[in-house]
Write a structure and sequence with these properties.
Organism (chain A): Mesorhizobium intechi
CATH architecture of the largest domain in chain B: 3-Layer(aba) Sandwich
Oligomer: heterodimer
CATH topology of the largest domain in chain B: Rossmann fold
Structural class of chain A: alpha/beta
Strand content of chain B: 15-25%
Structural class of chain B: alpha/beta
Strand content of chain A: 15-25%
Strand order of the largest sheet of chain B: 1-9-8-5-4-2-3
Protein name (chain A): Phosphonate C-P lyase system protein PhnK
Largest sheet of chain B: 7 strands, mixed
Keywords (chain A): ATP-binding, Lyase, Nucleotide-binding
Distance between the termini of chain A: 40 Å
Helix content of chain A: 25-40%
Family (chain A): Belongs to the ABC transporter superfamily.
Pfam family, one (chain A): ABC_tran
């Protein structure tokens, strides 16, 4: 492991007019590390994620990313072409609603293969073999490869979306409520799968969730947000077992015990 | 009212022609790039060649010789009407002969007779954006062209192979122009794609409803997209033209009766007539001189 972070975020703020999206957020993300961002709706966690993934431009602050050549690049100073290239090669973005991240009218195989074709792969047989391999890794049967995602269940769509993002071997994946809207048994399998993939591939990930159980299972480190500010951050187990900020204590004690 | 003086030369006013010529020049300067232009209302419905007619009207001069084809034929409604239109509003000479024409306006074919330097081929284009059916947002497709993000075009070809075992796209087959822009060659059969590559003729494309003009200058590389293991190939026909016995040309199927009778004939009528005049005979050709055959266009 290298001793340099993958992503350095410093004093990132995003204002919508006079309203605060997120305010003065700073952190470093290390290779292979999963960071959970938790908080209630409207706490700014999705705004933060969108700024980091350059889907939104922040009002102020900087974020620099260590490229594959080891050089840090300031994300908001890159050209749009470079950002989009990064987005489809070295990064992944898993949307809460799979329909936002998938092409619903092309087959599962083409969904997985699109990134490969986007980076210049022009061999049908190889693209298809890679697609078959990735579908099996996310537990989708091979004979579904030519079906459109419209014919898939919610859980399958989400797994397909994950495969589509991971096919180019990204180093950083952004996830926005990856298990939102799935029932608990499907959630459990998806989390299991994600945890396996993240460990096997050494991915760094930033996972936005309001579900503390998801954060506990997936992440090593955690940031708690409230009203656009980070109120507490630390190792996930420490934050959840020994919450210090009053808001975190409230959040942890709000979990339903069954 | 049949007076030519009723109209400005070639129907369009001079300011409009100037605007369209600027779009054409820009298109030629950036091969394959879709140039927006202020498309005018024409005395014909969208989809009948309003884009092609505006391009032709802007480049035609009194000395030009115009040929108009519709699916290869000189004698169908669209071709006859547009030819009559320019005869009336520009008083230009018209012809069906590919070799003597200086401007050829075409709907969905490139003539079989090789084009030469100095000729201009004007295509009528319904949907100029090759990525449109994959990405409905114009803002996004323009960005994709700007950033040369063409992976999506191959997704379409991938889908073809996955569904049909081969690239099943037979017309409007996407091409890459001069190694840069991906372009829709208009719904010509992919049979004609190789003719666009390094053609000595200037090729102009006009889409009236979509308000876009694009161009392929002479001797420009036009390469059909494909996969390494599924290379581009053109349609082949297992029989020659039934009238003129031509091989390696694009054939149309013509239904002869309601008992399943049919024949394959050249889609390029000019090419077929010339061959028959030269004495070539297909297996269904009458032995009489072709001029007396009632399948011939009444000119």
């Amino acid at each position: 492991m290298t001793d340099e972070p993958l992503l350095r975020v410093s004093a990132l703020s995003k204002f919508y007019g006079s309203r605060v999206g997120c305010d003065n957020v700073s952190f470093d993300l290390w290779p292979g590390e999963v960071l959970a961002v938790v908080g209630e709706s409207g706490s700014g966690k999705t705004t933060l994620l969108n700024c980091l993934s350059t889907r939104l431009l922040p009002s102020s602050g900087t974020a620099s990313y260590r490229m594959r050549d080891g050089q840090f690049r300031e994300l908001y100073r890159m050209s749009e072409a470079e950002r989009r290239f990064l987005m489809r090669t070295d990064w992944g973005f898993v949307h809460q609603n799979p329909a936002d991240g998938l092409r619903m009218t092309v087959s599962a195989g083409a969904n997985v293969g699109e990134r490969l074709m986007a980076v210049g792969d022009r061999h049908y047989g190889k693209i298809r073999a890679t697609a078959v391999d990735w579908l099996s890794r996310v537990e989708i049967e091979e004979d579904r490869i030519d079906d459109e995602p419209r014919a898939f269940s919610g859980g399958m769509r989400q797994r397909l979306q994950i495969a589509r993002n991971l096919v180019t071997g990204p180093r950083l994946v952004f996830m926005d409520e990856p298990t939102g809207g799935l029932d608990v048994s499907v959630q459990a399998r998806l989390l299991d799968l994600l945890r396996g993939l993240v460990t096997d591939l050494g991915l760094a990930a930033i996972v936005v969730t309001h579900d503390l159980a998801v954060a506990r299972l997936l992440s090593q480190r955690m940031m708690v947000m409230k009203d656009g500010r980070v109120v507490e951050s630390g190792l996930t187990d420490r934050v959840l077992d020994d919450p210090r900020a009053p808001y975190t204590q409230l959040l942890v004690s709000s979990i339903l015990q069954v | 009212m049949t007076d030519i003086a009723t109209y400005n030369f070639a129907y369009l006013d001079e300011q409009t022609k100037r605007m369209i010529r600027r779009a054409i020049l820009k298109g030629i300067a950036i091969p394959g790039y879709q140039v927006p232009f202020a498309s005018r209302e024409m005395p014909m419905p969208y989809g009948w060649g309003t884009g092609g007619v505006q391009v032709t009207a802007s480049i035609i001069g009194p000395d030009d010789v115009l040929k108009v084809i519709d699916q290869g034929a000189d004698d169908t409604t669209n071709a006859v009407s547009i030819r009559a239109f320019f005869k009336k509003v520009a008083n230009v000479a018209v012809t069906t002969d590919t070799a003597t024409a200086t401007i050829i306006q075409t709907r969905h074919r490139i003539p079989e007779h090789p084009l030469t330097a100095g000729q201009v081929l004007v295509f009528q284009v319904p949907i100029p954006e090759p990525l449109r059916f994959l990405e409905p947002r114009e803002t996004e497709t323009r960005k994709m062209h700007a950033l040369e993000e063409y992976g999506l075009m191959h997704v379409k070809l991938y889908e073809d192979i996955a569904k049909h075992g081969r690239i099943a796209t037979t017309y409007a087959y996407p091409v890459k122009v001069e190694g840069r822009y991906v372009m829709d060659p208009s719904p010509t059969p992919k049979f004609d794609n190789p003719k666009m590559h390094r053609s000595p003729a200037l090729q102009l494309f006009g889409a009236g409803r979509e308000k876009r003009i694009y161009a392929v200058p002479p001797f420009t590389d036009v390469v059909s997209l494909d996969f390494e293991d599924h290379p581009f190939e053109v349609q082949t026909f297992d029989q020659p033209c039934a009238l003129c016995a031509a091989e390696n040309v694009y054939l149309d199927e013509v239904i002869l009766d309601d008992h399943g009778g049919h024949m394959f004939v050249c889609s390029d009528t000019d090419h077929c007539e010339k061959r028959r005049a030269d004495g070539h005979r297909g297996h269904l050709a009458p032995d009489t001189h072709p001029a007396s055959e009632n399948m011939e266009p009444a000119q």
